[in-house]
Amino acid sequence: MRKLNVLFLCTGNSARSILAEALANHLGRERLRAFSAGSHPKGEVHPIALQVLEEIGFETANLSSKPWEVFAGADAPHMDLIVTVCDRAAGEACPVWPGHPVTAHWGIPDPAAMHGSGEQVHKAFLTALHQLQHRLALLLALKPEALDRMTLQSQVRGLADGGAAQSPGVDEAEDRR
Questions:
Q1: Catalytic site includes residue 141
Q2: What's the predicted TM-score (pTM) here?
Q3: Which of 94, 112, 140, 164 is catalytic?
Q4: 46-60 confidence digits (pLDDT tens)
Q5: Mean pLDDT across the stretch 114-120?
Q6: Hey, is 4 helix, strand or coil?
Q7: Is 10 among the catalytic positions?
Q8: Residue 2 falls in the annotated catalytic set
Q9: φ/ψ of residue 74, rounded to 5
């Protein structure tokens, strides 16, 4: 079985999409190859995003904030799935992606927009990380045969609310969680 290439998009590509890229590459290392980008990248990864990833033992040296055009060219990796993780990016006109990948929107509140104490901001990043982890776990629970284009489209969009996918592509044990 080949790995699915997944691109996580956010406007700034400094927090949510970075967390999603790191999580997907870690949790899905056998089935996914994840990337992230932004429509208007900040140019640097938010330091608290890096901090929470390092706290759970993830390598962060290769994470960077970059424009989504990097993945729209002919020489870019072919994407199977593109997931927007912020509402603003979901509403923007995206490039025409080579191969017309499956698309979905998993709206995650922006932890970088949190105002409050350092502890409150840190907690907002952890909350975003856990929301993404839950949705990725559900995606990875899909059986390989559920990852054909049509089934993948409906399954991944169904994960937007954090709910379990509703087809025979989900292991029954996972569906009972």
A1: no
A2: 0.82
A3: 94
A4: 999 999 999 999 999
A5: 94
A6: strand
A7: yes
A8: no
A9: -65, -30
